[in-house]
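Service request form, structural biology core

Requester: graduate student, group of Dr. S.
Request type: structure prediction, single chain
Budget code: on file
Notes: please return the result as structure tokens.

Sequence provided:
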Amino acid sequence: MRSTLAVAILLMTAAVNAQSRVTPAPASTARADAPIDLTGQWVAIISEDWRWRMITPPKGDIVSIPLNLQGQQAAEAWDPARDESAGEQCKAYGAPGLMRGPIRMRISWQDDNTLKLETDYGMQTRLLRFVAATPSGPRSWQGYTSAQWIVRGGGRGATRFGSLKTVTNNLRPGYLRKNGVPYSERALFTEHWDVHALPNGDKYLVNTNVVDDPVYLQAPFQTAIHYKLERDTSKWDATPCDARF
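Core staff response, request fulfilled:
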């Protein structure tokens, strides 16, 4: 009886020791889990809203943006010279306005859990973070962006596909349009990123986004912006923020 008990104890001890020696599986990363490839140089396709996106419209041109009365009054008070003298010439280059601009953007992996987005227009940099964290530091033009993959499919033998969802807060007050159409520091900027490949090898990126702002908007402002992947990256033309043009 004692010998049987001793053998059982030895077996249990060996099992525990074996389990303690098991190497844990490496943690998955956003880069490894990506259902779509966003990397590369993309150029905005300005096929709609040309007069608001390619040039600075006149003061008071607020068509298509659901401003409340406070927002309309702020837009009417726009003064680019005042912005320049205050060192705020980048107010139209914050994330909610930047993405609608005539931009080229380069997307790359800064690390396994952070996508970096750089633009030639305004020379801005956005970081899309997949690791959950509380925004820290002062508010900025690009704010703090949390990212997550939305994966569809991917079962046994199935092709994985999906999209990217990002949510940006901790923003400095800025402009939705270069003529002073405002958003406040309470704005929340939500984006869905989808990649579409054509049979000829061309790739397109669609950024569907919504700006929610309880200060200046009476309803969410939603747009869909299109970009094309560029094979020729020589057209990159980095220019700083400009309050007027």
